[in-house]
Amino acid sequence: MSKTLLGLSVILVMGATFVACSSTSTTNNVAGDTDAGGDSDTPMWDGGDTDAALADAGFKANTWTWIDVPGAKCRDGSSTGIGVNLSPGSTKTVMFLEGGGACFNSATCDQNPSKFSGADFKAYVGMGGPAGSGGGKSGTSFGILARADTKNPVRDWNMIYVPYCTGDIHGGNNLAGMVSGVSGTQQFVGRSNVKLALEQTKTLVPATDKVLLTGASGGGFGALMAYDQVATFWGAVPVTMIDDSGPPMADPFLPSCMQTLVATLWGLDKSVLADCGADCQGDGGAIDTAHWGINAVKHLAKKYPDRVLGLVESTGDLTISSFFGFGAANCTSFQPVLEPDFTSGLLDIRAELAFDKNFGTFYFGGADHQAHTSYENALDTRMSTDAMDGGAPVSLVDWTTQMVNGTVTNVGP
């Protein structure tokens, strides 16, 4: 491996959100390390105001439980599921899509998890403190999933955790993916997994009346890719989307050759680009795989003009700028995107979506990757780099709260 790719591998590991790997799959109550969760096709509870309904269904309130989801697969063909943390009395649900890189060449696939089981989830939740307690740096008690943070606007919502083991930013539809330098067939089935997670979620909390779809890194891109699918599934239920560190940049910031590469490999023409219709087509009506990222998001803004959509990103995200670097020299070289160019790409996103008054952005300075999923047991309190129109800088906590409550703003450079 070249020094460049070796350096990128370190970056990718840092950005992979510490997802553990194991081949064992179980259904269990993570906090108590006992069987719980019930059968995946059994109706659970309707958002009642007591713990009794949860207990009857095999759940403990405000505690993470793993559920094996029949049919959900990772890219190596192994089975997977979802994490569930239900809050008595709540009729609101946050669906969090995990990140962990992407799989489109030997270097990136090597750092992207190809499997994720109940045992992996148990280890993930248990990182640094009691599961679900908010008392340590637990994998699922940080950031937007932190119940202990009184400033977190979704702290008392039902929480659904969708792991990431498909390498396709949760949007792929290609059962027979072949990647040079990677052994075996790669099953890019992120779209199917999201569908199954939605069906399971509605079984668990059928009375849901508001949804926040969010995710970080690969899951941030995933929130954009899955939005139409999620919004269509919930129908009249309003779905807010916040993408953390998954910027849908246009060419040349995200080179068109790279957009075509991943769209073809992951089968996006049979998923998000099929949903996008004419908004993602070029001359002659063919799907425009070279510019699908920004086109797909503009399509969402036009199709859902009353829905709140948001992007959180640093002006020099070291991880994402490195991923985009594989597009250098028409995808024949590797050169990370420099911060001034990356910032220009972020401003271009804002300009492209300026027609949508319900698309908001929170941009902050530096090279950090991920903010909503910082490894602290609270929603990140960082401030925007500066404010537009001479206003005072805004905290991420306040911006997120405003977005969840329907007030859309753009802060940062």
Please provide a written account of the structure.
- The model is unreliable at 1-47 and 128-138 (pLDDT under 50).
- The radius of gyration is 20 Å and the shape is globular.
- With 413 residues, it is α/β, with parallel strands linked by helices.
- A hairpin with a 5-residue loop joins strand 1 and strand 2.
- The protein has helices spanning 3-15, 52-56, 106-111, 118-125, 190-204, 218-234, 256-266, 272-276, 292-303, 318-324, 328-331, 339-352, 396-404, and strands spanning 65-73, 79-85, 92-97, 158-162, 174-177, 186-188, 210-216, 239-244, 309-314, 359-364, 410-411.
- It has one domain (3-411).
- The strands form 2 sheets. The protein has a 9-stranded mixed β-sheet with strand order 1-2-4-3-7-8-9-10-11, sandwiched between helices. A two-stranded antiparallel ribbon has the order 5-6.
- It contains 13 helices and 11 strands.
- 55% of the residues are buried.
